[in-house]
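pasting for ref. prot 1 ->
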Amino acid sequence: MLFRHYSRCLRFIVVFVCVAVLAVNHRAAGDSASLRWELDQYITDARVLWGFHGAALVARDGDVIISKGYGMANRPIGDPNTDTTKFFIGSITKQFTAAGILLLEGDGSLKLNDPISRHLENYPKETGRRITIHQLLTHTSGIPDYTTLPHVVMQRNRQFSTSELMSMFDTKPLEFEPGTKFRYSNSGYIVLGAIIEEISGQSYEAFLHRRIFKPLGMLSTGYARREAGLPDRADGYTIDESRRLVDAIRVHFSLLHSAGALYSTVGDMLIWDQALYSETLLDEEEIRMMFAPYGCNYGYGVRIDTLYGQKHVWHKGFLDGFHTTFDRWIDDRLCVVVFSNEDEAPVDKIARGLAAIVLGEPYSRPLRREPVSIDTSLLPDYQGVYETDGGCCHIVTHDRGMLYSQILGEPRYKLLASAVDTFFYEIDNNRTIIFTRDADNRVISCEQKDYGRSEQAAKLVPKAAERVWKFRQEVLLPERILNEYVGSYALYYELEGRGSDFSLEVTRTENGLLIDLDKQDQIEVFPAERDIFYHKIAAFEIRFTRDRSGTVAGCEVSISGSRVSGKKSN
């Protein structure tokens, strides 16, 4: 969910051998051993080819078919992942926040059409009386997402109160009139957490424990605290630019709070799945409201679509070092939980492959594929922003003879050629992207294919594309110029009327700079021109300023459109 793209880059390169396998499962009902073996084999293939470390559970009508750990929970100690390992679940947290709101609604403590200001007196009235609880739940509030703000990125190891979190966004202009559009916003779920705390008179953590986790027996689920001992916890890993599995950046969970601060196990998620088929916690009408698609197929803390011919309710979670998904096929009462502590593992792809095996649907095993060589002079043809009918933007860039694809706000993935104009994803090598040309041989659109489903996207004209993504190409700067930027910079911004200072350390790489934000982690940036450096994955830019004598004297850091200035101190 958060911050990963500010400090990471590529996954390791796999040497592919063409072994295309398409399997269709027509298993007799009762052949549980064969089914369990096939599920285990699929996850094992994902472990080898897609870098999956984690745990997976598949259950039908509450009966567990497979529940097992794969890879390592803690590499230095050598602890393996098991089905009792605790994983940080990121945005899967949102459905528990939504359930908490529905419980308060059932108590008569609030109504879903209540405005924010009815329950939070200190929330700015101008917007607080225009935004309803329902709009917060469905990401239709218009409140900008706080997670890309520079002072959030630079302080992700610091503890925050709920009021401090809200102060980051509550006075910012709305992105649209409430209720008119859908835009995913973690900020809305922070406000929901504040409403839970205000009405209940308890912390968010205590409320969920008392009203949800303890009554259901979810004894291995709770509010995450890295500073506190948590037995059987998985450590989070990522892939660095040298293609090594390394420790992921650590985030203080108070920063994620009611938008993404929980941990759980695959077994506890099955308990949650079963509770949602009964009236153990929520009544029938509350469950109906939670799983109704209100806009862009989003309910209350869950996504809703149709997959394999039946209603599919799901949500992913992401934070540095962890990638998780919780999927439910309602008609068959099929539950699939895939938690990974390696954050590039395609957990949603794995979950849907496992579901296809159980449901007797066609599926593709993780593949080894051998890329072909194409003329690298073709790569600029593909670069651009491709927008789907639903408004989702795919950004395609080329860099050092390779092609990459990413969704705005997410990491980029390497594309490998299978033919001219046809590529597959290195990280998910049975997902393809096909580019289409017009009569003048210009690339005008692309089609992404996966699991028999196709998604079309039109290439935006350059002016429209630049509003979405600023395309840069790395240039070479002399060593003497690069050395001028090295040093310490003091950054400053205001939070709740209090000034806060942060340091930024700049060191050299061969043709770029390492930026250390407040001595927490380093990201590599590259020169687009003299005094301007950019990150190749994130919307991060640093511009260096000079005094009248031409000496580097300061900088301006830009993250997702927000800016923070700094002064060089040495």
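and prot 2 ->
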Amino acid sequence: MLRQLYIRNFALIDRLDITFGPGFSVITGETGAGKSIILGALGLLTGRRVEGKPVKNGEERCVIEAHFDLSRYRLEDFFQENDIDYVADDCILRREISQTGRSRAFVNDTPVQLSLMRELGDRLVDIHSQHQNLLLGKEDFQIEVVDIIAGDKDQLADYRQAYLAWNEARRDCERLKNEMAEARRQEDFLKFQLKELEEASLEEGMQEALEQEAGMLGHTEDIKQALFATDNLLGGDGDGVVIRLKSALQQIASIAEVWPAAKDWQDRLESASVELKDLAGEISRAMEDVEYDPARLEQVNARLDRLYDLEKKYTVSDVSSLISIRDDIRSKVGTLDNSEDILREKEEEERRLEAKAQDKAATLTRLRTKAARKVEQELQERLAPLGIPHVRFQVEMGVKPLAGDGQDKMQFLFSANSSSPLQPISQVASGGEIARVMLSLKAMVSGAVKLPTIIFDEIDTGVSGKIAGKMADIMREMGKADRQVISITHLPQIAAAGEAHYLVVKEETPQGTVSSMRRLTDDERLTEIARMLSGSEVTEAAVNNARELINAQS
């Protein structure tokens, strides 16, 4: 329930700080006084986007803040799920908007995303403005009304989950079919690519190994000459390093027994001699193995040229990338070969999920059909006292392909008398009739969803006299069940039914035009209702008539 509304520097409002109570309250004022500004401020608090320039001229920012009592509405889970402090008797929604249009939103002083403020606002306040009457002819609104009366929230959630799963499976099948069609168009080309890549016998590191071998084969004579010279230097005829090192070892060994220091040299020379002798043998054998092989060189260069050509063709720089491309093409060809089996499996899964969604949609249809009959009966009962005694109302249901809200087509049919055929309500109902239908629907729906605060913006358009009084009775009754109902009205019959009466006025001040709002005393209320009855000049007869209207509601 809305307890307090604070507005600063918003549009024509300099400063507003006003409290509200439970039950049925009314707001009146001359046309253009600023009642729509109050609604606009509340709309921003319930997450609506900023339009135009809401900040009062000359000010840097505007602030809109509302305090709600949530103690009877079981909203603790919402605050826990979103990590926001829960204060049952004083939940604070605040919106700050700068002159540049930048907006910040807070719930209990915690900064929140606008989407979260909207979600909470939708649970706290239902603002019914005149343009919402246009919703009456829209199918999604009609289905929503029937769903609320049906109480099928859980079943609708189950259906939507099943529908989304089926829709995803259906998209998977369509995607696979498109891929198969594309793959078939490219099948010969893919197989050609796979063949040339497989014939290249690609292996990791092969390019480096081939390039190294090609370098060696291209310098065979240089290698052989170097090995030959090294072999002569190490083991030549009596003059090689190995022979000379052996002689040196003999000289040192001859003095090792008489000069102990030479023992270490002897050991080191022996080690070097063994190592050099072994190395000389390896070089000698390598020299014999190195042979110029032009055929092998041609073969290696041919393989390298093939690798280079493939890398250029597939715009890569190494064999690893070619291997990845080969494996990917192999996978595509393999998928194509097995695609029919895969598609059959996916289509079978799609049919299974569609059947599941159909089953859950049928459950929704049964609940909605039952609720539709209830809406028909109750709406006719509510509309008869509102000046449409011979009203006929029907919720026409049909079948449509599975959609996000089920398989039910829905249309509200209406006739204001027994002789006219039923037709879509948006085509045949007058503005006053639509207003009465919407009020009756809101009364039905509010009992099902337990909204804390409902605000009607001139829902009485097109009605007057006794009918207005009956509409006031409905709103007053709605305000009794732990609910707060606020009506912005131009009709004295409705204003007289309010348990609290607020007046919006617009004044010219030295600082410019300013709108304000205040709660009226009993005497002020009497005068305001008399003004609504008689116009700008309040007559004694109007005052007496206003008093009678007020007393009739007591």
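The mean pLDDT is 88.
The chain has 17 helices and 15 strands.
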